[in-house]
Amino acid sequence: MKCDGRGSRSFLETIRSITPIPPDTLLVSFDVKDLYTSIPHTNGIQSTRWLLSINNISPDLVDLCCDLLSIALNNNFFLFEDTYYLQVRGSAMVSNVAPPYANAYMAHFEDTSIYTHALFQNHVLTWKRYIDDVFCIWRGDLDSLQDFFLFLKTSWPGLDFTMTHDPYQISFLDTLVIKDTNGNLSTDLYSKPTDRNSLLHYDSFHPKNMKRSIPKSQLHRVTKIVSDPVIKEQRTSEMKSKFRERGYPPRILDTASTNDTTRVRDSAMSRIPFVHQYHPAAYRLHKTIRQHWHILQTAFPTVKEFQHPFLPCFKRPRNIKDSLVRADIGPIHPGPTQRFLSNPRTESSVLIPRTLPPVTLFDYLHSELPLSPLERTSILFFFCGAHKSPPPAVI
């Protein structure tokens, strides 16, 4: 019933394990509006502390994790036009901490408020959540469902739900769940009415392996999700037509159709990744490395990573979009621009409280602020590891 991070795979396993459901049931989906940017910092940190504590993590490690989380949440600055802002609620959308942080908040909400609620215990047959999306099978009338929906919308700070319900079919993630007249559930691919054929074009400047793997993964997705054999054949034909429209040759589609996607993949955990920007000539470089890889295997027989082939990994090079689209659109008023948080351009253009200490890494670690050694270490860890690149304020 509880959250599962595996997404649609776990959801399909749950649906196919359900026996025929009673005729008076409703298929329901709930969605939390703007979850990542709506969680109050204090409540979110409390939920994270609760989740870590119930998993038998040492109190010292729980305190350290919560301190680091507090630093990440309370120092989330961003630039718009010529002004820096401090986000005072929720987490940054691009932050690595955002999904587990939101998941912890929702898990705390479920455990303390939902699972013990009388309406949940009396009417919910299945409850499956993936971060901010919930699938529910509700046994009861529409009035009781509306009462439960009102409870969800008003019970916890920062959570505002939307609800969709139907007696016969409902969409969840990329799956359409269908109930027949006998109460049996089946699944089909779901796509929004506004969806267009946005598959990667075959002439695009991307690695050949990627172009071969996309048809395999998408056709496997059809096989995995669609439960009815007749509809599965139809969806497979439709998917191939989409690839043909994007220039994929028939031989790649035929190979993808016959590919055995159920095989167990070799673990990549013990392989050394070789990461570099993509270039068409990179395959010749990979070939050269493979030809001489035995030198490392012979010279270092005890290093287990050298006993496996290396793992080529491509990074996306700079493209036209990177040159045309910028997050910093520049100042809107002539005159000096603001480049440091501690030196605002004008008093009225900065929304950051004046009581905040300097926010450069140098100021944090070397000033006379009342920081303990643990706090200074935590700040150093945050600035070095919590961002893919330092924010402008750290320059």
Q: Descriptors for this entry?
A:
single chain, 395 residues, alpha+beta, four-stranded antiparallel beta sheet, three-stranded antiparallel beta sheet, 41% helix, globular, disordered C terminus, RT_dom, HTH_animal, Reverse transcriptase domain-containing protein
Quick structural gist:
It comes from Ranitomeya imitator. With 395 residues, the chain is of the alpha+beta class. Helix content is 41%, strand content 15%.
Explained architecture:
The chain has 395 residues and is α+β, with helices and mostly antiparallel strands. It is 41% helix and 15% strand. It has 13 helices and 11 strands. The chain has helices spanning 8-16, 41-53, 59-74, 98-114, 118-123, 142-155, 208-225, 229-245, 250-258, 282-299, 320-324, 361-366, 373-385; strands at 25-32, 77-80, 83-86, 124-130, 133-139, 161-166, 169-172, 175-179, 185-189, 273-277, 311-315. The protein has a 4-stranded antiparallel β-sheet with strand order 4-5-1-6. The chain has a 3-stranded antiparallel β-sheet with strand order 7-8-9. The chain has a two-stranded antiparallel ribbon with strand order 2-3. It starts with 7 loop residues before the first helix and ends in a 10-residue tail after the last helix. Residues 346-359 and 385-395 have low confidence and may be disordered.
